[in-house]
Amino acid sequence: MKKKLTSVLSSILLFLIGLALVWWVFRKIDITEVIEQILQANYGWVLLSLVLGVVSHIFRALRWNILIGSLGYKTKTHTTFYALMIGYMANVLVPRLGEISRCGVLHRKEKIPFDSLLGTVLSERVFDLIVLIVIIFSVITFQLEVVGGFVNRLIFEPLFNGVSNNFTAFLYLGLILFGSILILYIVFRLLKPRLEGFGIYQKIEKFVKGFGDGVKTILRLKKRTLFFFYTFMIWFMYFLMTYVVFFSMDATSHLTIIDGITILAIGSLGMVAPVPGGIGSYHFVVKGLLFELYGVAETVAGSWAVLIHTSQTLMILTVGLFSYFMIISLRKKENRNIESV
């Protein structure tokens, strides 16, 4: 009960931080103008963006199936897609809850070990992080004068200034952390023969082994070419669903393909921030990019950030809710089939 209360309070705090960031982004902007810009947008392009977003999630479900197949299990694409979208819906409410939720849904539906599924999700996340880093560095390299300075002011200067000003504290913290890990490892090795007799240890060891098997799926892929193709399509759809929204407003319709890749890459930093659904952090990064780099009026920049973030969030909530009811429907159908046998 105490753990659940702590989790709820943590989620509320993160949500409030997100709202505070939204306030900070729009504190000097006339909200009436923002609303007018959004209402005047061409929603045909927004609708196309939503369709492309759904397609990207279908490719992600197909890619996840490959990792699951490497574990020796078979799943239907629609079931994996439903589990994935339920996870995304959970992430909008509580950061990082989605990974656990989608694994839980698929575990209950297909009887695949939860720990192994969680390992495949970690593999997927690590691989996507590598792809994102490559895209970000490519964007910065090819637009060093424009993007490099912005990223430096936004991220690296505050980071390095913080480290240099507190170097001694960071050094001591690092030494304490390293020493603690070393001591815990030595104690564990000494006590392992005794711990092996306890049921709780055996359960933890089984979980760790299953988790490790899931992580290693990316190293023993049977359909490596298809995995890379799906990865390319996921990120290509991400780019397209960002780029087409430029045409929804006259003031952003002049932006180029390179600009779209830049918004996708740097804007993703806002989405990975530990706030529900990237609220506030995404608006902060994207509005800054459009206003400072590309000279888009501040009101329009803020309106565009709200438009794309809100539309994609509503899509995730809608498709996620639909997926939730579809999973329930599939379970009821399976139960009726079992009872009729």
Description:
The protein is built from 13 helices and no strands. By secondary structure, the protein is mostly helical. The protein has one domain (32-340). Helix 3 packs antiparallel against helix 10. The longest helix is centred in the C-terminal third of the chain and has 43 residues, at 298-340. The two termini are 41 Å apart.
Rg from C-alpha positions?
23 Å
Distance between the termini: 41 Å
Shape: globular
- How many individual β-strands? 0
Structural class of the helix and strand makeup?
mainly alpha
How many helical elements? 13
The portion of residues assigned to helices is over 70%
Domain tally = 1
Secondary-structure element pattern, one letter each: HHHHHHHHHHHHH
Question: Largest beta sheet, briefly?
Answer: none
Q: Please tell me the overall pLDDT.
A: 80
pLDDT under 50 segments (min length 5)?
Answer: none
Strand fraction equals under 5%
Q: What layout of secondary structure does this protein have?
A:
Layout: H1 2-26, H2 31-39, H3 43-69, H4 77-93, H5 97-110, H6 114-142, H7 144-165, H8 167-195, H9 199-215, H10 224-243, H11 257-271, H12 281-293, H13 298-340
Helix pairs in contact: 1-12, 2-13, 3-4, 3-10, 3-13, 4-5, 4-13, 5-6, 6-7, 6-9, 6-11, 7-12, 10-11, 11-12, 12-13
Which short descriptors sum up this protein?
globular; mainly alpha
Give a brief outline of the structure.
With 341 residues, this protein is mainly alpha-helical.
